[in-house]
Write a structure and sequence with these properties.
Elements lengths: L1 H21 L1 H19 L4 H24 L6 H22 L8
Length: 106
């Protein structure tokens, strides 16, 4: 069972690296989602905090999709800057929530 789990994790890491090379916006999105999930597993994030952080990531993803649809599947330089700024704010939110005094019981 451990071998299968390890193989799945290595495959996910390889795919994550491929996504980073193709599109840094999507790679950052994936990284943020993983950090939120890790915070829940470690107990540093409550379920409510994680839900809000996931909602923020979902909102950024929807905005990115809308920007791509408006530009024929591509992001302009301004679109990338706007998404980067939103991801930066989301990153700060993740840090604040993980290191506040609220923790999941257990």
């Amino acid at each position: 069972m451990k071998i299968i789990t390890t193989a799945v994790m290595l495959g996910a890491l390889a795919l994550g690296g491929a996504a980073a090379a193709q599109n840094p916006i999507n790679a950052r999105q994936l990284n943020q989602e993983r950090r939120i999930d890790a915070g829940v597993r470690s107990g540093k994030l409550t379920n409510n905090e994680a839900g809000r952080l996931h909602a923020q990531q979902r909102s950024i993803r929807h905005e990115s999709d809308a920007m791509r649809a408006a530009n024929g599947g591509h992001l302009s330089r301004g679109d990338k800057a706007a998404l980067h700024a939103r991801q930066h704010r989301a990153d700060r939110n993740i840090i604040r929530k993980k290191y506040n005094r609220a923790h999941r019981p257990g």
